[in-house]
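Issue: ligand-bound run for 2-acetamido-2-deoxy-beta-D-glucopyranose - logging full I/O for the record.

Environment: standard queue, default settings, no custom constraints.

Inputs:
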Amino acid sequence: MRVLSLLAVLALEASGTVALPSFATGLKRDALTSTFCGAPNQYEVLSGTPWIIFSMNYNYQSIEGSCCTGLYETSGSGDAQRIHWSSIWDIDATVNPDLVKGYSFIGLTQNLETQLNTISSIPSTYTWTVSNSTAYKGNVVYDFMTSDTKGDSTSSAAQELMLWIRYEGGQIPLGYDKGAVATIDGLYGKDGWKLYQGLNTDTGITVSSLLVPEGNQFGDDVGGTFEGDIKDWLLALSEQGVFEKTTYVNVGNAGMEPFWGTVTFDNTLGLRIDL
Ligand SMILES: *[C@@H]1O[C@H](CO)[C@@H](O)[C@H](O)[C@H]1NC(C)=O
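Outputs:
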């Protein structure tokens, strides 16, 4: 939800003021070799890939336990490029249970800050396997940011867009109390997606969350797979008047929002913007 600092981080990376870990090159890993446990942020730009791996625990003060993002390996190239990673939660359910603790994710670093109508596709595949020893609360989600201004992800004119493909434990989106503002059918093979909108009072940015129907989510208790063109979601939002097709896609990522529970998600993700 709070991707603002991501852009700030990427800007720092671009200007070379943050030293990259020396192991960021030559990625070919077959075991969990890197673990990132942000307090609040820990990340690595993965050279030779379009990605940054991120552990963003913006509410780390409310984490009794830990929440980490793990890297196994990246593989392939082009449309077949994948990242094998994990999101590892061991979060006490009694401390601020309804507060999202952060965001564990893989973010795009390439072909951002381009107008939606100049993007040919945003192909993605997202597979997750769940190992939990308790119940848990959280989601599996794509999170993008758009603005009519290139590069803007911080002003109140920027928009945050979430696509919830799975959610557990009673997580609800911003604006849920006002009810859905639209229903979208025929997206990623499912009807009845519900669009909610609400203001994130921390950032001043309106968040539009599109939720897969609760009873027809992707996957099950032990895991799932999603495959689709993320551009289809953005176009569906533009058809609802959320933004024009000329708006800029400034931030894009996929991950998990942790609230509480002891659970590990073992994930394989493909995500890229093709111009
Ligand atoms: C694991 O999570 C599922 C919900 O996805 C829940 O139904 C199940 O009871 C949990 N397992 C344990 C051991 O708590």
